[in-house]
Amino acid sequence: MAQHAHTDRSASGRKDDVIQIRAAAELKAMLSRAASLRGQKLSEFMLASARREAEAAILDQRTFFLDAESHEKFLAMLDAPPAPSPALEKLMKREPLWNR
């Protein structure tokens, strides 16, 4: 289970937020080895890895790749939007998942 504690940030921009994670000994050993191979401290390695995964998860919800045929169909749908309906208006007012 992860715990998150927040302390006040100083004007110096120090990293004052703390993230504590419990892990199996085998996983910790693997992470430590990987960090060592990269010349990083365990915490640096874990934060960099977690950041990459977080960015990928967010971009996965914001970036879409289409082949040429699907792209043309998508453009055609944009040029001929459906008539407004209460359900569509409700959907369009919802905050996107990636902003939550």
Automatic annotation (TrEMBL):
Alphabetical GO biological process terms: regulation of DNA-templated transcription
GO MF, one annotated term: DNA binding
SUPFAM superfamilies: Ribbon-helix-helix
Keywords attached to this entry: DNA-binding, Repressor, Toxin-antitoxin system, Transcription, Transcription regulation
InterPro entries reported in the protein's UniProt record: Ribbon_hlx_hlx (IPR010985), TacA_1-like (IPR014795)
Family: Belongs to the TacA antitoxin family.
Protein name per UniProt: Antitoxin
